[in-house]
C-alpha cells in the first residue's frame, strides 16, 4: 500500500459493530423495528392481544371462583358455619345443636364480626292453589342482615319483623301463586309429631341467585322452633371478612365442645368445590395450551419476517456482520417488539380487568346459566379479579415467544449463507303435584245478628252437618271434563274429631283407608301394606283427587281454625235470603288453613248448613259446597247430598251421597286405631 493512499470508509453496519458491538447491535435492532413499520405493528398487535387475553382470561377464571364462593357465603350458606358433626352428615332437625352456651365464648375469637342461629328443616308449603315440598330456614330477623344479603334483596314487601310472617323467593311465590299479605301454611314433622302453622307473606325476594329465588322460604326462628320442636338451632353461622373464612374456622374450633365443628364456606359448598377446583385445573391446562400457541404465533410472525428479509439480512451479512450476531439481531428485534407489546397488553388487560372487577359486566352473561343450573349457586353479580400475578402469567408467554424466536428465526438468520440469501426471494404466511284446593281472603266486617251468638250458631251448624256418631256408606262421583270416576266407601265417625273411611270400590282401590283422630291424619296403602302419617295441613287437601277435602266429611276443624261472626246478606254474593243466617269465618292466627274466609248460609230455624263458599285471599270464591236432602233424626237434620265445585276450573265437580246411615249407634274406640285402619272396624 503506497503512502497517502486512503482506505475506503467501512460500511455503517461494520463500523458500528467494530466500535461498540453490543450497543451497536441494540441500536441496529431498534432502528430496524421502525424501518419496517407494518411488520413491527403486526407483531406488536399479536403480542398485545396475547397479553391482554391472558390477563382477562385469568381475571375471569379467578373472578368466577370468587363469585361462586361469595354467593354461597352471602346467599346460600354462610362465611363460617358451626353445626353438630351428625348434622353435617345428615342435615335433619333431629341432629340439632344440643345447646348454644358456647356462643358466649365466640366473642373472644379474633375475626368473628357477628353470629346468628338458624334452624333449617324440610316442610310442605301450601297456598290456596298448590302444595309443594320446600326447605325452610328459621332465622333471627335482627341478626340475619349481618350474615346474608337476602334481607336487602326483598323486591316486594319487607323483611321479617316478628313471628307469624314468612318471606319467599320470587319463583317460590310464583309457583304457589302467593302474594304479599296472603296466608300460606307450613307443615313439618316436629320431634313431637306433625305440626302446621299459617303464616302471612310479608316479603318476596329477588336475590339474583337462582337457588335463592327458586327455593328460599324464610320464617322467624321462633316459628321454626315451634314447627320442629327444636329449642336451639341446627347451625350457628358467623360473619367474617372475605378470605379469612378458613382461618377463623380454625380459631373457632378451639372453643367448641366435642361433636361440634366449625367449617369455612369453601368446605361447605359440597360438589361445587370439586367443580371449581376441577375448573381451575382445566383452566391451567387450557392456559398452557394457549401460552404455547401464543408463543408459536409470535415466533411464527418473527419467522415470516426473517423469510421476507432474506435479501436484506444477506446484504448485512455481506457487509461483514458475523452470522452469530445476525441471529442475535433478529432475537433482539423480537425481544424489543415483545416487550413493547407486553407493556401495552398489560395496560389494556389490567384496565379491562379493573372494569370487570368494578362493574357487573359478566353478570348478565351468567343470568341464563344461573337459571338453568340453580345448584351452581351463581349470582347475577359476577365480577372479575385483579391480581399482580397476572404480570407473571403474561410474562411467561412473552418469554416463551422470545425463546422460540431465538431458537427458530434467530438460528435461521445465524446460519444464513450470503450467496444464497442474495438470490433468495421469500414469502411465508396462521341449564306438584299441583293440588287444587280452596283458598284464603281478607275478612270483611260482618253485621251483628241480634239475639244470637255467632260461635253458638257455628257449633250448631257443625252438629247438624256431622250428625253425631254414625255408620254409613259414601258414594263419591268425581266429574271432570270428558270423564267421571266413582268411589264407594264405608265410614265410621263419632261426630267429633274421629273418623275412619275405607274404600270398597272400585276393586283397584279397595282396601285403601283413611283415619282422622284429632290432629292426626293417617293413610293406609293396601298395596304396600303400610300406614303413612300425614301433616295436619293435609286435612284440607283434596280427598282421592276429588274436589272434597278430609275436613268436608269428617272432623270439626272449622270450629277450631276459624272465628265466626255474622255478616249481612250482601256478603253472600246474592245467595242470602231473609230466612238465611250468613256466617262469615276468618282464620285464627297460625291456623293450618289456606282459606282467607269462609261464608256459610244457615237455615234460620233449624240452623242447618245450606252452602259454604270458600274465598281466596284476593276476594274470589274458589270453592263452593252445597248441602241438601236432609235426614231428620232427633231434631237434627243431616245432609245426605253434598255437591262440591272447584270454581277455578270449569267442569270440576264432586257429588258425595251418604246412604245406609245408622245414627246414634255405639261406635267403639277401637274403630279409631291403626289396627282398625289396616284391618277395618266391625
Characterize the structure shown.
- By secondary structure, the chain is α+β, with helices and mostly antiparallel strands.
- Helices cover 37% and strands 26% of the residues.
- It has 19 helices and 23 strands.
- A 13-stranded antiparallel β-sheet has the order 16-15-14-13-12-11-23-22-21-20-19-18-17.
- A hairpin with a 4-residue loop joins β19 and β20 (608-615).
- α3 (37-76) packs antiparallel against α10.
- The longest helix has 40 residues, at 37-76.
- The relative contact order is 0.12.
- The model is unreliable at 1-19, 370-377 and 416-451 (pLDDT under 50).
Compact summary:
The protein is of the alpha+beta class and 682 residues long.
SS field, number of helical segments? 19
Percentage of residues in helical conformation: 25-40%
Strand proportion: 25-35%
Shape: elongated
Give the neighbour order of strands across the main sheet: 16-15-14-13-12-11-23-22-21-20-19-18-17
Please summarize the sheet with the most strands: 13 strands, antiparallel
Q: Which structural category fits the helices and strands? A: alpha+beta
Query: Which whole number gives the mean pLDDT?
Result: 78
Quick tags:
single chain; 682 residues; alpha+beta; 6-stranded mixed barrel; 26% strand; elongated; disordered N terminus
SSE topology:
Layout: H1 12-19, H2 21-35, H3 37-76, E1 80-84, H4 85-89, E2 114-126, E3 131-139, H5 144-147, E4 154-157, E5 165-169, H6 170-176, E6 183-190, E7 193-205, H7 210-215, E8 217-220, H8 221-228, E9 235-239, H9 245-253, E10 260-264, H10 271-308, H11 310-318, H12 323-358, H13 363-372, H14 389-414, H15 418-423, H16 454-466, E11 470-480, E12 483-493, E13 498-505, E14 513-517, E15 520-525, E16 530-534, H17 550-553, H18 557-561, E17 562-566, E18 580-587, E19 597-603, E20 608-615, E21 621-633, E22 636-646, E23 653-663, H19 674-679
Amino acid at each position: 500500500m503506497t503512502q497517502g493512499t486512503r482506505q475506503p470508509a467501512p460500511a455503517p453496519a461494520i463500523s458500528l459493530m467494530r466500535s461498540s458491538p453490543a450497543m451497536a447491535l441494540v441500536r441496529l435492532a431498534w432502528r430496524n423495528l421502525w424501518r419496517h413499520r407494518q411488520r413491527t405493528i403486526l407483531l406488536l398487535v399479536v403480542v398485545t392481544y396475547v397479553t391482554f387475553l391472558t390477563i382477562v382470561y385469568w381475571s375471569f377464571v379467578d373472578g368466577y371462583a370468587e363469585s361462586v364462593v361469595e354467593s354461597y357465603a352471602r346467599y346460600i350458606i354462610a362465611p363460617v358455619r358451626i353445626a353438630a358433626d351428625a348434622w353435617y352428615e345428615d342435615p335433619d332437625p333431629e341432629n340439632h345443636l344440643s345447646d348454644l352456651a358456647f356462643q358466649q365464648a365466640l366473642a373472644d375469637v379474633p375475626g368473628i364480626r357477628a353470629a346468628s342461629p338458624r334452624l333449617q328443616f324440610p316442610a310442605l308449603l301450601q297456598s290456596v292453589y298448590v302444595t309443594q315440598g320446600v326447605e325452610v330456614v328459621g332465622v333471627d330477623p335482627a341478626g340475619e342482615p349481618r350474615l346474608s344479603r337476602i334481607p336487602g334483596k326483598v323486591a316486594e314487601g319487607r323483611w321479617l319483623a316478628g313471628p307469624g310472617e314468612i318471606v319467599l323467593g320470587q319463583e317460590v311465590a310464583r309457583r304457589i301463586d302467593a302474594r304479599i299479605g296472603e296466608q300460606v301454611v307450613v307443615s313439618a314433622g316436629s320431634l313431637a309429631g306433625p305440626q302446621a302453622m299459617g303464616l302471612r307473606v310479608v316479603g318476596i325476594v329477588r336475590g339474583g341467585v337462582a337457588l335463592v329465588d327458586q327455593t328460599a322460604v324464610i320464617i322467624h326462628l321462633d316459628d321454626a322452633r315451634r314447627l320442629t320442636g327444636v329449642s336451639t338451632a341446627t347451625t350457628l353461622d358467623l360473619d367474617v371478612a372475605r378470605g379469612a373464612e378458613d382461618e377463623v374456622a380454625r380459631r373457632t374450633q378451639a372453643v367448641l365442645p366435642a361433636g361440634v365443628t366449625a367449617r369455612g364456606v369453601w368446605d361447605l359448598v359440597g360438589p361445587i368445590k370439586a367443580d371449581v377446583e376441577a375448573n381451575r385445573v382445566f383452566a391451567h391446562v387450557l392456559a398452557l395450551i394457549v401460552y404455547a400457541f401464543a408463543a408459536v404465533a409470535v415466533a411464527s410472525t418473527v419467522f415470516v419476517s426473517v423469510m421476507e428479509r432474506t435479501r436484506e439480512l444477506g446484504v448485512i451479512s455481506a457487509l461483514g456482520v458475523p452470522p452469530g450476531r445476525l441471529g442475535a439481531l433478529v432475537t433482539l428485534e423480537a425481544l424489543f417488539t415483545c416487550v413493547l407489546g407486553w407493556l401495552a397488553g398489560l395496560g389494556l388487560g389490567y384496565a379491562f380487568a379493573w372494569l370487570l372487577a368494578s362493574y357487573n359486566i359478566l353478570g348478565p352473561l351468567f343470568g341464563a346459566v344461573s337459571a338453568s343450573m340453580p345448584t351452581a349457586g351463581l349470582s347475577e353479580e359476577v365480577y372479575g379479579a385483579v391480581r399482580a400475578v397476572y404480570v407473571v402469567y403474561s410474562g411467561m408467554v412473552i418469554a416463551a415467544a422470545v425463546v422460540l424466536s431465538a431458537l427458530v428465526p434467530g438460528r435461521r438468520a445465524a446460519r444464513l449463507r450470503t450467496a444464497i440469501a442474495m438470490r433468495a426471494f421469500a414469502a411465508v404466511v396462521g341449564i306438584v303435584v299441583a293440588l287444587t284446593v280452596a283458598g284464603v281472603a281478607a275478612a270483611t266486617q260482618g253485621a251483628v245478628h241480634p239475639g244470637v251468638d255467632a260461635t253458638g250458631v257455628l257449633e250448631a251448624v257443625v252438629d247438624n252437618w256431622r250428625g253425631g256418631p254414625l255408620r254409613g256408606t259414601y258414594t263419591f262421583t268425581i266429574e271432570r271434563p270428558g270423564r267421571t270416576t266413582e268411589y264407594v266407601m264405608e265410614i265410621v265417625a263419632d261426630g267429633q274429631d274421629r273418623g275412619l273411611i275405607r274404600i270398597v270400590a272400585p276393586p283397584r282401590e279397595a282396601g285403601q283407608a283413611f283415619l282422622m283422630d284429632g290432629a292426626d291424619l293417617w293413610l293406609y296403602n293396601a298395596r304396600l301394606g303400610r300406614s303413612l302419617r300425614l301433616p295436619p295441613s293435609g286435612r284440607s287437601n283434596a280427598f282421592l283427587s276429588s274436589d272434597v277435602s278430609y275436613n268436608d266429611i269428617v272432623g270439626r276443624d272449622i270450629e277450631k281454625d276459624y272465628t265466626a261472626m255474622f255478616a249481612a246478606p250482601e256478603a253472600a254474593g246474592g245467595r242470602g235470603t231473609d230466612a238465611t243466617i250468613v256466617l262469615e269465618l276468618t282464620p285464627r292466627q297460625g291456623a293450618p288453613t289456606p282459606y282467607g274466609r269462609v261464608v256459610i248460609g244457615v237455615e234460620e230455624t233449624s240452623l242447618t248448613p245450606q252452602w259454604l263458599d270458600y274465598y281466596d285471599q284476593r276476594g274470589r270464591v274458589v270453592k263452593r259446597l252445597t248441602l241438601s236432602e236432609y235426614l231428620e233424626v232427633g231434631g237434627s237434620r243431616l245432609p245426605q247430598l253434598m255437591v262440591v265445585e272447584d270454581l277455578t276450573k270449569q267442569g270440576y265437580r264432586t257429588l258425595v251421597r251418604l246412604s245406609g246411615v245408622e245414627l246414634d249407634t255405639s261406635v267403639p274406640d277401637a274403630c279409631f286405631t291403626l289396627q282398625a285402619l289396616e284391618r277395618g272396624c266391625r
